[in-house]
Design brief:
The complex is a heterodimer of chains A (about 325) and B (about 170). Chain A is mainly alpha-helical and about 325 residues long. Chain A is built from twelve helices and two strands; from the N terminus they run αααββααααααααα. The longest helix of chain A has about 40 residues. Classes of the chains: A mainly alpha (about 325), B mainly alpha (about 170).
């Protein structure tokens, strides 16, 4: 009993450390990749000086941010000002607790599931955690005691609240097909056919809402430089700014991982090992994020809200209706 | 193990609950309320009611409290004005009522009202079927009418809110 618990504990710790480490590495490489890919799409070279092809640029940036002076505005609410970046980055990272990144493997005679924990309300957990992510942004906006920050924070949270709804509803179709809220079951259900084939509309709605949810172009209004300076993190400097930066990329990786899990078959794929397939699909999703950013212009605020409430929301309800209808017809 | 966790989380919930009342700044009050709600969600998990725990966070901590916080931040309440608004004549009745409520709770806990016999939904049974599945099944079969009535109520409330906000539609 005791030994079993110890083994379980050690395996869980190793899995958590591994996943967190990989996500951190991905964040660092995403920063480099985004700058390079966007540069090449705009016929530039991007960072070239630090290391071969600017490969060490993120490390240089990190060191620079770490050694910069950390400024807290005099009239800011100090506690919340410090807490806000942490509150944004934590929800983005802990979503990974339920995302399966590989099949069962045998290590030293022990069966290890390649998912940190498989809970039977995994789907709800993802949304519970992501709905808490808003607080960091709201707090940052308010605690800075700066009207641009406040406006940015409010904009951002209004956007996140509106699009969280469609984000959740777009995945309901998949949950209906799988008949389970556990993410492991969702992946296992896609062994033969990826859900993107069965739920193309759901995938489209998910992608659109995901872009809005993580405040990325074309929905990056909270950071509209021409209107709001830099949005909710206007007053932030040094490592606190870097934490917000990290949170943005962590969020991107999270929503991509959910897209892979729910629509793109998770770790299923021929020839290559499951973990490699998962990483490949994740990278493809992340590349798509960068691609869209360098392609589309920014939307206006009223366009964003109208699009969310008057087009995407009815469409996602329609998708649920159609899915239910076809499921009943098929029996 | 579970008992220790319960005591830790319950203590945090009570402390944040007390801070929620005594905090002068409404924004901090709202944040403490969120913490209390998250603590309650943890208590639900300890009771093996994962579905309710998730819904507690999604609905209360995630949706309702964000709107609370929004309103408080946009109104930008003045802290000094706030403290004047306390109603002095409520103080004595409030203390009396508080004592009565506390005594009532103590009496109910001591009495045998809470020690009924176990129903058919034991923890083992709930876990074997699955939390969400069981609740879903019950909501759409035995408790369909209350469920529908509640949804109509919420719908009416939503329409009412829109009517109040937009007089001219």
């Amino acid at each position: 009993m005791n030994k079993e618990f110890l083994v379980y504990f050690i395996i869980a710790c190793v899995k958590i450390l591994l996943v967190f480490g990989v996500v951190q590495l991905m964040i660092i490489s995403m920063i480099w990749l985004e700058r390079k890919v966007m540069a090449h799409m705009q016929v530039r070279l991007g960072p070239m000086r630090v290391g071969p092809h600017g490969l060490l640029q993120p490390i240089a940036d990190g060191i620079k941010l770490l050694f910069k002076e950390d400024i807290i505005p005099q009239k800011a609410s100090k506690l919340l000002f410090i807490l806000a970046p942490i509150m944004t980055v934590v929800p983005a990272l802990i979503t990974f607790a339920v995302i399966p990144f590989g099949d069962k493997v045998k290590i030293l005679g022990y069966n290890v599931d390649l998912v940190i924990t498989d809970i039977n309300v995994g789907f709800l957990y993802v949304f519970a955690v992501s709905s808490l992510g808003i607080y960091g942004i709201v707090m940052a906006g308010w605690a800075s005691n700066n009207k641009y920050s406040l406006l940015g924070g409010i904009r951002s949270s209004a956007q996140m609240i509106s699009y969280e709804l469609t984000l959740g509803l777009s995945l309901i179709g998949v949950v209906m097909l799988t008949e389970s809220l556990s993410l492991v079951d969702v992946v296992n259900g896609q062994a033969k056919l990826w859900n993107i084939v069965l739920q193309p509309l759901g995938f489209f709605i998910y992608c659109t809402s995901a872009f809005a949810e993580v405040n990325r172009c074309p929905f990056d209004l909270p950071e509209a430089e021409s209107e709001l300076v830099a949005g909710y993190h206007t007053e932030y400097s040094s490592m606190k700014f870097a934490t917000f930066f990290m949170a943005e990329y962590a969020n991107m990786i999270t929503v991509s991982a959910i897209a892979v899990t729910f629509f793109l078959g998770g770790w299923h794929g021929p020839f290559l090992p499951p973990v490699v397939w998962f990483m490949l699909k994740l990278s493809a999703c992340l590349f798509f994020f960068i691609w869209v950013r360098s392609t589309y212009p920014r939307l206006r605020y009223d366009q964003l809200m109208n699009f969310g409430w008057k087009f995407l929301l009815p469409l996602s309800l329609f998708n649920i209706l159609i899915t239910g209808f076809i499921m009943i017809l098929k029996g | 193990m579970e008992a220790y966790l319960f005591y830790i989380v319950a203590t945090i919930a009570v402390i944040t609950g007390v801070y929620l009342i005594f905090e002068r700044n409404p924004v901090f009050s709202a944040l403490f309320l969120i913490q209390t709600m998250v603590c309650i969600a943890v208590l639900y998990i300890l009771l093996e009611a994962q579905f309710i725990a998730a819904v507690q966070i999604i609905v209360y901590a995630g949706a309702i409290m964000v709107l609370f916080l929004f309103v408080i931040m946009l109104l930008n309440l003045n802290i000094k004005e706030e403290s004047k608004n306390a109603l002095p004549f409520q103080r004595i009745p409030a203390v009396v009522m508080g004592i009565v409520l506390f005594a009532a709770i103590c009496m109910i806990i001591k009495s045998k009202l809470l020690q009924g016999k176990h129903g058919e939904y034991t923890t083992a049974y709930v876990n074997s079927v699955g939390n969400t599945k069981l609740i879903g099944n019950l909501l759409f079969t035995d408790y369909l009418l209350p469920f529908e009535i509640t949804s109509i109520l919420l719908f009416v409330a939503a329409i009412g809110a829109i009517m109040l906000a937009k007089r001219k539609l």
